[in-house]
């Protein structure tokens, strides 16, 4: 079971990295297009006018997906910000109880958030909601990525709690 969970956390980190790479690729292509237009203009040629429609919107959705998909993996690797100064000053027993309370409370909150975002994604599918940009992107896609990231975080929190 440990191997399966670790692979799941690694998968979510790889998906987050893929989203970052997609953002870099889209922005890179847009920059190259603008540089090419500038060079055409400087050489006396009419600019091509290259543009990636809805780039800011797509980058925003990918960034949201990146942020949520990376939550579980960073928690399991100990990369989240922790209040170690306070915890270090406490006795082992109090520290254990405080961490237990924090994990249980976090699990409850993340369970609620996961259910809410999953319901939002389901409603977006049901009502065929799309973004308002030049390219109508189904809103269920970024919402499903957020729900997956929250589900992974919930599993990681319960894993730590156990």
Mind explaining what this structure looks like?
- The protein has 162 residues and is mostly helical.
- It has 6 helices and no strands.
- The mean pLDDT is 94.
Structural class: mainly alpha
What characterizes the major β-sheet?
none
Report mean pLDDT, rounded to a whole number.
94
What is the overall shape? Answer: elongated
N to C succession of SSEs: HHHHHH
State the separation between the terminal residues, measured CA to CA: 13 Å
Beta-strand content bin:
under 5%
Low-confidence stretches: none
Radius of gyration: 21 Å
Fraction of residues in helices?
over 70%
What's the number of helices?
6
Instruction: Give the total of beta strands.
Output: 0
Key structural traits:
mainly alpha, 162 residues
How would you summarize this macromolecular structure in one to three sentences?
By secondary structure, the chain is mainly α.
Secondary-structure map:
Blueprint: H1 2-42, H2 55-69, H3 71-76, H4 84-88, H5 92-126, H6 140-161
Helix pairs in contact: 1-2, 1-6, 2-6, 5-6
